Amino acid sequence: MDYRLLIAIIALLISLVNLTWNIYIKVKSEIRKLLIQSYKSKSNDTFNCVVTLTNIGNKPIFIRRIELEEKVNGKAKRRHLDYNSYSEEFENAPINPENWKTLIFKDNKYFSFFDTEAKKFKKTRLTVITPKGEKYTTKWFSQNNLR
After folding, report:
1. I want to staple 128 with a disulfide (CB 3.0 to 4.6 A). Which of 30, 75, 113, 136 is the partner?
2. How many helices (H) and strands (E) does the chain have?
3. By the 8 A CB rule, do 104 and 45 touch?
4. Residue range 123-132, pLDDT digits in tens
5. 135-137 and 124-129 beta bridge pairing
């Protein structure tokens, strides 16, 4: 076997590995990730849900809305959060990589975070939706979903 052919084959293999690695890095850098941490607490006579949104990806994330679902008799029921309470935080302002925003939602006349009959926090799930329709969802949690 000619040494020039061997060098060409080795160069071809190195080029393919390099191409694969560059494609992998490009795809990985385009991924958006949002970490949602939340917990429920009591302050005075009201119950709150504190939500911290942390961008752990490499691209800024715009937030369109936040939805809350709670389990009522084993079925998920969508509850409406007051958009005006958090819209100013996200109006044309993304969460940049490695930054976070904290929101506090309070009980209102439509729903309460605490079940007075069972004397425990209700099971809840949060969904954050971007303008492109991407959804970031927590697992069902009662007290908190902190890791």
Report:
1. 136
2. 2, 9
3. no
4. 888 999 988 8
5. antiparallel
Residue 40 is predicted with a pLDDT of 84
For residue range 45-102, list pLDDT tens digits in order: 778 888 899 999 888 999 988 888 888 777 888 887 877 778 888 888 889 988 999 9
Reduce the secondary structure of the chain to three states and give it as a string.
CCHHHHHHHHHHHHHHHHHHHHHHHHHHHCCCCEEEEEEEEEECCEEEEEEEEEECCCCCECCCEEEEEEEECCEEEEECCCHHHCHHHHCCCCECCCCEEEEEEECCCCCCCEECCCCEECCEEEEEECCCCCEEECCCECCECCC
Contacts of 105 (CB under 8 A, 6+ apart): 48, 49, 50, 51, 68, 81, 82, 85
H/E stretch holding 71: strand 65-72
